[in-house]
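Below is how a single chain appears once it has passed through the pipeline. First comes the sequence as given, then the structure the pipeline wrote out for it. We keep one example in the README because the format questions we get most often are answered faster by looking than by reading.
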Amino acid sequence: MAKQGFETHTVTIEKLDKKGSGMGAVWRDTGGDNPRKLKLNVPQTLVGEEVKVTVPNPDRKKARVLPDEIIKASPARIEPACPHFELCGGCVWQHWSYGSQLQYKTGEVKRFLSRHGFDTGVVKDAIGATSPWEYRNKMEFTFGHDGSLGMHELGNFRKVIDLDTCLIAGNEMVEVMLEVSEWRKEFNLSGYDKDEHSGLLRNLMVRQSQKTDELMLAVFATESPYGALEEAVDNLIRRITEKFDNVKSLMWMENREWADVAQSEKTHTLFGRDYINDEMYGYKYRIWFDTFFQTNPVQAEKLVDLAIEMADAEKSERMIDLFCGVGTFSLPFASRVKELAGIEIVETSIESAKRNAADNGIDNTFFLAKDARRGMDEVLETWGKPDLLMLDPPRSGAGGKVMRRIGRLRTDRVVYVSCNPESFADDITWLREFGYELVQVQPVDLFPHTVHVEVVSLLRKIDK
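Resulting structure:
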């Protein structure tokens, strides 16, 4: 027993939850005939480990606690590389060898597919990152109400860990973040208090192209950069542009909304332009602050390679790219087919896709700002049945209505790229009743030290 109001237990970790934390249970002796089960969620632990934990308010049925001591460690446990790992909520698995992370992610893809009766023999081993460090080209840092600048604390969205490094971001991105932090301190500018909805500085977004080296900074704040803040903002412009000559976009975003999201009600371009140039798979893209673009471009190029290989497209074929975004897959595929139609409900993304196609001299595409089902109907009226369809939906998946519409479209091949193996497995179940067979699934790890894994898959119509 521990101090009053707390209990100490030893628990064996039985599995991991969706967020990557260990899970186990202990039976509490209540002094009667029926002991009570206490389910424990223990971050930074691995399956099979025996750990000591202290539980506050143990009368409840569930608790989430950090381990006090690792009594029996997993053979796959390693020393975390980042000094902030134990507190920072950005990474969850730095204590786990990278090879073991990949094995687990492959297993999760198989588990979700087997739940729907698919043959897991079509799933290949996950392709790991070339480097599990410094892979991100975009970071969103948060200002705490105490002026700290960094990432949210593990399990505590109200507290921000003041970072002096981040091992999954590029070195220069971290240097820029630290420079902004020093600027805030010099001018004694307040951070944002989520509970009181007060304070000035909310977020700092940093984007950097790994191909062009161009940097973008966006400061999200509750006030205009002019008037009382003009001296501080002028200083920010001067110190950033003098120290980082590759900054091509420095912006100030007014955001007074209650929602804690990096959004802009009014955008001020303080220096340069409101976008940066990037490249992927040999194609040029313009990236705005709110553009969705793969945050691990090295691994994303592997996704494109795999999609092209699985699709085996021919120059005589017509193709639909569903949930096309800004054309990440559309542009590489366009040179391999007769015509390509990109469908995306976000109008700004469609405008970007059109501009990106023009910038790259691509003239056999057309892009529709419509929801998936109406967009497919319009393509069907224009072309008749397309030969090939590709989709890359959001984490929630495409949904049954869209998948049934894809099934009725009766394309020869469907290439499905997903960032969520669970919704992917749910979605492709709908295609079986339309005569499609799952041929191949390739997991790809875009986000080392996190629970996330992407998959590229091929479904072929066998019932003509």
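The first strand starts at residue 6 and ends at 12.

See the next section for the split statistics.
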